[in-house]
Amino acid sequence: MSSFDSVAPSLQIWLGSTALEGAVWILVVLMLHKALGSWLSPRWRYLLWCLVALRMALPMLPSSAVGLSGMALAEAMPTAPQAQPAAAKPFVDVSRDRTAGEEIAADAGDEASSSAAVTGRAASDLSSMLAAETRVLPEAPAPSLPWWTMALLGVWAAGALVSLLRLLHFERQFRRRLAQDIGALDDSKAQQLLKECLASWKLSRAPQLLECSLLTSPALCGWRKPMLLLPRERWQELSTEQLRHVLMHELAHQRHHDVLMNWVLALVRVVHWYHPLLPLACRRLRESQELWRDEQALQRSPEVAPRAYAATLLKLAIPQDRRPQPASAVGLLHPSSAIQRRIHMILQQRPPSRLTTALGVSLLLTLGAVGLTKATAQSSAQQPGEDSVPFLSDLPLLSDQFEHRWQKVEVVRASPEPAWFAELGKRLNKTVSMDLEDVSMVHFADMLRAELGINVILGRDALDSSSRITVLADQVSARDVLDLVCSHANHDFGYMLHRNVLVIDSIERVQSANDMRFYDLRDLLSSGPRKEDPDYLMDELQDHIQNLVTPRAWDQENVSMRNLNGRLVVRASNQTHRELKSFLEFLLNRGREPQYAATPAAEALALALQRPLDVQFDGQTLGEAVDILRLATDLPIYVDEEWEEDGELYLQLKQVPVIQILAWLSDYSDVPLVKEDSFLRFTHEPPLTLRAFTVGDLIGSGSSADFDLDNLMDLVHETIGDRAWDVEGAWLSTWNDLLLLRQSEGILREVENLLIAAKSLR
């Protein structure tokens, strides 16, 4: 992914919001000028326009409760679905409307309610699973923008480049012509007058006083090395007092760094070259700037009469200079309309009063707080009602589940990692789309070679395997595709990185290639209510690792795990080390995982499952029913081969979401429906997921804690039923104040509801 692709979405949003909000604030300031008239002094007029320029220039804005920035654009643009944290699945948001199955259960009798509730629960489990389980590596790219958006950004970039080149070319020409035209002004009276004006302004750095014929009115040029330019011959027509007026005005520009402000305005116009109102705003800002400098020059010279100062402007305004001014110069005069307004303001000038100062300060603070801050994100939590379930975040189960900084386990390798290892790992993190429909392992290896550009070797067992692969992986990492293929039913394989090659072979051979690593677990052992007994926790932890992290790996030769002063020394395969590190950080972060973004495929799948559909099944098998749905919806839905001929389905539904139809098919055929990355599968071997629930407030302390934990595990075991624990790989245990379960999504949801009910009774 190119750097422009990663920056383009943010750039698009910033340009759109800045253009829209900038236009709004330009119109607001114009209306304030019109409404307040002479009550708004030149100072506050200029500062209000500076707020507009600052809003157009800032790439980022701070948040505040009164900020309005971003609200208009957010309302105008469609809201994209947001991914839930992958590890928050036990605590997913269930404040949704009732599903169709749950509404049936609410209106029917006891016997009918039981059957419909099962279907409703299956659909809600699948819905929450689809919303929360988006497996994307942090390096997965953002979805590509539409072509027309990229075209518009290209037009904007071309226009900004042309504007910048024009600005630099004009400045270069001005500097070149100025260098050929300027000459030193040797008039001793003018030099003495400049020193007096510098003393009035208390400026320590004197500008170089020069004369030139390039400009027809006085101007201050340069910021770091200022030059005060007087028009050749014309300045000699000025009296001493009139020359003082000119010098006081130009030194006011120097005192307030107006040349630098001009450069800022010029660059803002380069970036927002397309904005129709920005030239007007810049023109009004420059005009207000001149008005304020006139006012300051008069205030610094109380002996000067306003009429005399206005007469100086009129004398220099004939003839007037209509040529564009460079950004590096601040001139005294502008077009005649501005001169008329300046003379009117000078003659009607009022001394500053407390009322006008209070008015200006209040306007500046109000518009600054509203226009230069963005709106704070507000969560629109649904209020618990008759047909909704309260947010789980309102319950004590979620006392510390969010606003958590991700913690990592420090790992030290016994032998240095070779350079090729990181490169291969980077290749495996590449996002790919692979449609594997009944392909062999040899064909799959060929596709990996072509997609990733790496060497792939099939071991003897994988090469001789007759297993066929059916996997649809859309916009997921190549590593996830490998995990899917290797862990697929009847595909008892693994993979490893060995000698600069990706090797796919049997689990036994993959796990025989081991290396040693040291895991620093002192932070893990020192957290939680049982930190006073680290040896007991380490023994308990090793038991969990052997049962939850690739259990078969620990039966292999040359695989070991030892405790060394709070550090776990493990010799195992690369795949086992990867799963072990994930498990340890899972415990260290109390069951949480980093938040991942939803892939385009996952978002499209979630939307398609909400589409209403009319279906009628009259004696079809599960495989035939799924074929009908696949053709009608174009969704990636599959059935394990051994269940395709299962049962006869009789079902007629009108305008029911696809997700509900799938739930009914799963209920009638008694075949669970699970989601595997970007597709759905009916299988009797659903994947089991490891989850952690905080139960510290359900147990006591000391010896009573063990008793309460045992009672809690017995309660969970008996409530769910023995059948759920007979599944291979199912697990129920505790760690510190965490209840650890590895179960299907439906069972995890039942345990979650059980714990919520238990905590609500305390």
Task: Explain the overall architecture.
- The strands form 8 sheets. The chain has a 5-stranded mixed β-sheet.
- The two termini are 52 Å apart.
- By secondary structure, it is an alpha+beta fold.
- Helix 2 packs antiparallel against helix 10.
* Main β sheet profile: 5 strands, mixed
Side-by-side strand order of the widest sheet? 2-3-5-4-6
Computed over alpha carbons, the radius of gyration is 37 Å
Detail the poorly predicted runs. Answer: 72-121, 131-143, 377-403
* Number of DSSP strand runs: 24
The number of helical segments is: 27
Q: Please indicate the percent range of residues in DSSP E strands (runs of 2 or more).
A: 15-25%
In whole angstroms, the N-to-C terminal distance is 52 Å
CA-based shape = elongated
What oligomeric state is this?
A: single chain
In helices, the fraction of residues equals 40-55%
